[in-house]
Sequence to fold (318 residues):
Amino acid sequence: MPRMARAHHFITQFMLANFTSAGTREDLLWVSDLKSNKQWKSTPANTGHRRDFYRVEGDVAPVDAVEGMLGLVEDKVAPVIQRVIESRATPDDKDDFQTLLYFVALLTTRVPGIREGIDDFVDRIGQHILELSVATEERWDSLQRQMRAQGVKGVDLAYEDAKQIMEDRSVRFSVNRNWQLGMMFKCAHVVYPTLLNRTWCVLVSPSGNLICSDRPVTIVFTRPAPPFMSPGFGLPDTEVSVPLSRHVLLRGIWDKQPEHAVSMNRTCVAHYNTLRTIQADRFIFSTAEDFPWNDDQHCTHHGMDGVQDFVRSQTQPG
Fold:
């Protein structure tokens, strides 16, 4: 029997290979860690993965069912992406175009940052419910009586113990992996039609200095938005972008775009690298160690020098 893969790539190996100098899986690319501020070289096989990340729990399906489904999508889209890179044009074939955008939708939802964001949201909801449940001893006792009446077992927890758990935040609320895997596909199916409704253009970096990240699909407002408003895939005045290689990037907006590829200068390349860096969860993947990015004064920097402080200034309140 073939050996079951345990290293599950949230960024596909064929895509990471496009950010090596030779464009092959055997070549090396640079990995930049925004958390530790360290950089190192690695192969696509050893990059952008987590152990058992898509493993199905229990006996509801084969443990590698989701990994297999993702593999089918990747096998179908890999030659489509290669043709886009070589032709510098979006697919003329309708099926190829839909395959490409469904892959982009999945690339949006399959990454660790999205799963962790959902877990954080569930935890905040759970903590709030727990806080309300232990607001008074009478409310807690009433809640326990209702749970016993419904046949829930293991609810004999003293009020003071429950309150201590809430105050210490010693319990974290989360959902199981199978639920998360289901949400990955459901959210991709929500994102997908919004991508189909956009117009798409190929942007080209002649220097080959585009970067990828562990959250490669970015979305930003194209016009000033109200404070604390986040861009959504279905909202107007937003731009979606995803790099397919160190030379080629896809841009999707709601307005008309050029049908031919658009060449980017170094400032524009640095702009898209900056979006990727700000929205990254932790890792940047690049051909060169000294990838370009812009600060908020539109000055271009290279590599990791100052990038931690810049990202922190853009992502943390105050």
In short: The chain has a mean pLDDT of 92. The longest helix spans residues 65-87.
